[in-house]
């Protein structure tokens, strides 16, 4: 169905405005981190400098924060995948009693306000496990609550999209259940697993609302360090470290997107070849 | 498959052990949920700051908190922000989802999807900071929007930015479940473009619209970092007071406020569930 | 039911290309008013595209579509005197059966409410769905959904009703029953029906006239009987009913030979002989056109089907009256048929 040119123009303007709105706060951070000025006053950069970035990397709380966040994110992602993948598999492929209820239980943490979850883990640690407060393990353990719904949903969707008969065929051809899972099922869901892993890692790396309850102010993850510093003042060092986060996140997202796209294209390419 | 197995053995092993794979995840969630319900409530019925597991029940914190008008004004701000932000966000997200869905060039649609969804992967703190930079005095838009920073409009602007992808996602999914044939059938039956939208597409995307509203509302009323950074202490929401009270070592009060936030969330969820059932009752 | 419309359709030189793929290569077709016309062809032959062009859901690159004497080539779908029954039914899931059927009467606001209601009731009675008026599509069976879809299109009293594989989603028993009903509804309303199908038995049972399509062109158009008895091309011969096709006719002393059998003299690229035209005779019988070794025999009730292999390895199917042969698998017999039973394609002209 044809569209009128006026409507097309309106659509273009709308999409342009949305794009500007979405990208503006990210672009301004990037600009602030490479402009020599202490305070960014215009959107046209008045020069170029890397001094803020090197200062940011020298700033102790940020340096500690990067390592801390990376450790937490890696550990939380691994735990979430290890807990979530078998659960998604069992829910999709076997008859679990109360599967409907379990499915909603696994999604439930999404509705739990992160600050409430933060307070609860804080209470849990100070009451039962004082040694977990402020440790990589303690923070990661709490982050798993936020990641688990995504892992179960994404891996579950991947399993729903793959043919269960393939695994049965592998079993029929003599593979043990474990062999069938690792040689047939796992390769089929490697893209959903990749997406779930990347998404979990970035979510955990970026987390503030929950994390801030679980660590003392002197040793924190990177986003919490940024938050605490912003509460006092703003300076280009903060812009610099934020820029690093933006660039790293978007590059990782883009690479993942391309990997998924390539895998997808490869698959349709094959079916086209065998089609009529 | 090494030779014959004894029948008794086989029968025993047939009892689907794979179902046990859910157990680790469930155990984890049980710990988390028990911490939520038991510890949260137990902390809220204390007076003293104490980390012991069991403390005597005392409702003084509850009665002082509920009698405090500051709490209620915070709750009011929280709900007002939730309402305004979710309405604005959905009003932008609904046409946005349609625009993306009907884009003709594949690469353009992919690029637009990337623009819309990639901010999810950038920390909320960084995005809120970006808005601070844009709005602050002396900043690029400081002259025009000076009065927005550290006031509600600034908080709303940044929250809309943060929640936009979460609103687009359910709407886009509901649009994608509508087969092209429905629109074609409506056109074939004499419906004009406006009629096709009003009588077929809008009712069929209503569930997506509702879940977008619900998601943004619940996320907004529990948002912490964005109001804290852009509100500048002048706009205070429930999530901030919980954090502040922990800093002030008023744990029982923080627990009371956390319970209130949780209850608000549950009320909103059940309200939306009821409305969705009412509207979408017959669709599936 | 004289209020129903009926128009002829005239399609002239319609072409359609998707990207680099030519889907329709210059189609011309006449459809008589009040007739039941089937577009028959294998998947990907362009028949659905042609139907969508008639409905206005797709636009031809070139060519003219005339409906009832008016050029409708550029008319938008919602302003055409046609209505389409989708393969899936495409019933609106948020509306009841009655609201689905009333949808097309409300869009133009020309039908008064009272009349709309009685027309909906009338058409639902016609398709025997009156008692389901308040149900939602999700609660209906496949056959019921298709009845509603047909009612929804018919209630607008289109001049031409277009049907896109309307029965293909149904099970076989239901298909057979719905064929008879479709035919009855067409006769009762007198509306022109144009039905796309890939099923030749469906087309033969439904249609007054069948247009056989292949690779974007109409190979032949005519009654079921014409197509069966006088196929114009090798494609039609093999697509309508069963046929034994022979290739590479080589001249000999007496007549010609192809695939180890002797044919009457004449030029052709390929030849076709219907299975029911074939007789089995003793191998040394003078009438035998060549030997065949029996591969399998099977009894179907009305006939015995014998599959044979000629001396060049060509497989030949014979359909004989029960008791007409005692041949067993492994026997060698003579293959015979009348000269008149042979149809020739290509190079003949």
Protein traits:
heterotrimer, B: 284 residues, mainly alpha, MetI-like fold, 2 domains, 13 helices, 73% helix, 0% strand, disordered N terminus, C: 349 residues, alpha+beta, Rossmann fold, OB fold (Dihydrolipoamide Acetyltransferase, E2P), six-stranded mixed β-sheet, five-stranded antiparallel β-sheet, 8 helices, elongated, transmembrane helix (chain B)
Describe the structure.
The complex is a heterotrimer of chains A (276), B (284) and C (349). Chain A has eleven helices and no strands. With 276 residues, chain A is mostly helical. Chain A has one domain (52-274): MetI-like fold (Orthogonal Bundle). Chain B is an all-alpha fold and 284 residues long. Chain B folds into two domains: 17-58, no CATH class; 69-283, MetI-like (MetI-like fold, Orthogonal Bundle), CATH 1.10.3720.10. Chain B is built from 13 helices and no strands. In chain B, α4 (69-101) crosses α8 (152-176) and α4 runs antiparallel to α10 (193-221). The model of chain B is unreliable at 1-15 (pLDDT under 50). With 349 residues, chain C is of the alpha+beta class. Chain C folds into two domains: 9-239, 3-Layer(aba) Sandwich (Rossmann fold); 244-345, OB fold (Dihydrolipoamide Acetyltransferase, E2P) (Beta Barrel), CATH 2.40.50. Chain C contains eight helices and 21 strands. A six-stranded mixed sheet of chain C has the order 6-7-8-3-9-10, sandwiched between helices. In chain C, strands 16-20-17-18-19 form a five-stranded antiparallel sheet, with no helix packed on it. A four-stranded antiparallel sheet of chain C has the order 2-1-4-5, covered by helices on one side. The chains are: A mainly alpha (276), B mainly alpha (284), C alpha+beta (349). At the A-B interface, α1, α3, α4, α5 and α6 of A face α2, α4, α5, α6 and α8 of B. Chain C: One of its GO terms (molecular function) is ATP binding. Chain C: Pfam families: ABC_tran, TOBE_2. Chain C: This is ABC transporter ATP-binding protein.
């Amino acid at each position: 169905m044809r569209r009128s040119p006026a409507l097309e123009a309106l659509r273009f303007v709308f999409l342009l405005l949305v794009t500007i709105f979405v990208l503006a706060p990210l672009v301004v951070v990037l600009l602030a981190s490479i402009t020599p000025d202490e305070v960014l006053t215009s959107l046209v950069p008045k020069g170029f400098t890397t001094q803020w970035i090197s200062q940011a990397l020298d700033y102790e709380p940020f340096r500690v924060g990067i390592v801390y966040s990376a450790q937490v994110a890696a550990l939380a992602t691994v735990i979430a995948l290890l807990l979530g993948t078998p659960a998604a598999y069992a829910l999709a492929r076997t008859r679990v009693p109360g599967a409907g209820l379990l499915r909603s239980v696994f999604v439930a943490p999404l509705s739990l306000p992160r600050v409430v979850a933060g307070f609860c883990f804080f209470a849990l640690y100070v009451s039962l496990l004082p040694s977990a407060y402020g440790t990589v393990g303690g923070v990661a353990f709490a982050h798993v609550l936020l990641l688990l719904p995504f892992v179960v949903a994404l891996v579950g969707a991947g399993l729903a999209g793959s043919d269960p008969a393939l695994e049965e065929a592998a079993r029929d051809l003599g593979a043990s259940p474990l062999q069938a899972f690792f040689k047939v099922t796992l390769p089929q869901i490697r893209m959903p697993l990749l997406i779930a892993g990347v998404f979990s890692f970035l979510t955990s790396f970026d987390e503030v609302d929950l994390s801030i309850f679980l660590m003392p102010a002197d040793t924190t993850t990177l986003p919490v360090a940024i938050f605490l510093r912003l509460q006092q003042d703003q300076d280009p060092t903060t812009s610099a470290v934020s820029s690093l986060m933006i660039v790293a996140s978007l590059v990782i997202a883009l690479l993942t997107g391309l990997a998924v796209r390539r895998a997808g294209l490869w698959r349709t390419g094959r079916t086209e070849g065998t089609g009529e | 498959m090494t030779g014959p197995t004894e029948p008794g053995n086989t029968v025993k092993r047939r009892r689907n052990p794979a179902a046990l794979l859910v157990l680790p995840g469930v155990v984890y969630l049980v710990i988390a949920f028990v911490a939520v319900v038991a510890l949260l409530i137990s902390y809220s019925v204390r007076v003293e700051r104490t980390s012991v597991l069991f403390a005597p029940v005392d409702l003084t914190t509850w009665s002082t908190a509920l009698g405090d008008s500051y709490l209620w004004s915070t709750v009011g701000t929280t709900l007002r922000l939730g309402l305004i932000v979710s309405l604005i966000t959905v009003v932008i997200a609904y046409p946005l989802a349609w625009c993306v869905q009907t884009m003709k060039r594949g690469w353009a649609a992919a690029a637009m999807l990337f623009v819309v969804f990639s901010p999810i992967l950038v920390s909320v703190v960084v995005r809120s900071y970006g808005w601070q930079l844009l709005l602050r005095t002396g900043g690029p838009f400081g002259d025009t929007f000076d009065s927005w920073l550290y006031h509600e409009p600034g908080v709303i602007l940044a929250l809309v930015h943060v929640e936009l992808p979460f609103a687009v996602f359910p709407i886009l999914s509901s649009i994608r479940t509508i087969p092209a044939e429905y629109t074609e059938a409506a056109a074939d039956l004499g419906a004009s473009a406006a009629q096709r939208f009003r009588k077929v597409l809008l009712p069929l995307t209503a569930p997506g619209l509702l879940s977008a509203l619900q998601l943004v509302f619940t996320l907004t009323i529990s948002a912490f970092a964005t109001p804290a950074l852009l509100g500048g202490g002048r706009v205070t929401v429930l999530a901030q007071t919980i954090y502040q009270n922990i800093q002030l070592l008023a744990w029982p009060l923080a627990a009371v406020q956390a319970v209130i936030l949780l209850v608000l969330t549950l009320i909103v969820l059940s309200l939306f569930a009821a409305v969705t059932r009412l509207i979408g009752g017959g669709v599936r | 039911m004289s209020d129903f419309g009926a128009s002829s359709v005239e399609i002239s030189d319609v072409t359609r290309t998707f990207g680099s793929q030519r889907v329709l290569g210059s189609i011309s077709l006449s459809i008589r008013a009040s007739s039941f016309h089937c577009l028959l062809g294998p998947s990907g032959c362009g028949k659905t595209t042609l139907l969508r062009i008639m409905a206005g859901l797709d636009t031809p690159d070139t060519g003219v579509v005339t409906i009832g004497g008016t050029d409708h080539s550029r008319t938008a779908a919602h302003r055409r005197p046609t209505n389409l029954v989708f393969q899936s039914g495409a019933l609106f899931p948020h509306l009841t059966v009655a609201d689905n059927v009333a949808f097309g009467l409300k869009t133009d606001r020309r039908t008064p409410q009272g009349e709309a209601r009685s027309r909906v009731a009338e058409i639902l009675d016609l398709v025997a769905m009156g008692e389901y008026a308040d149900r939602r599509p999700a609660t209906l069976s496949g056959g019921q959904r298709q009845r509603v879809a047909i009612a929804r299109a018919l209630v607008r009293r289109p001049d031409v009703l277009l049907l896109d594989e309307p029965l293909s989603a149904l099970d076989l028993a239901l298909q057979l029953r719905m064929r008879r009903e479709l035919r009855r509804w067409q006769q009762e309303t007198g509306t022109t029906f144009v039905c796309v199908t890939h099923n030749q038995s469906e087309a033969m049972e439904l249609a007054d006239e069948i247009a056989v399509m292949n690779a974007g062109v109409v190979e032949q158009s005519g009654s079921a009987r014409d197509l069966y008895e006088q196929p114009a091309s090798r494609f039609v011969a093999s697509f309508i009913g069963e046929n034994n096709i022979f290739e590479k006719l080589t001249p000999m002393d007496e007549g010609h030979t192809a695939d180890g059998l002797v044919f009457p003299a004449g030029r052709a690229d390929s030849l076709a002989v219907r299975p029911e035209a074939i007789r089995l005779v003793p191998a040394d019988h003078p009438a035998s056109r060549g030997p065949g070794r029996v591969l399998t025999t099977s009894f179907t009730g009305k006939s015995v089907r014998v599959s044979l292999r000629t001396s060049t390895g060509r497989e030949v199917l014979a359909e004989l009256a029960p008791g007409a042969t005692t041949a067993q698998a492994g026997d060698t017999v003579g293959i015979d048929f009348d000269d008149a039973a042979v149809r020739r394609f290509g190079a003949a002209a």
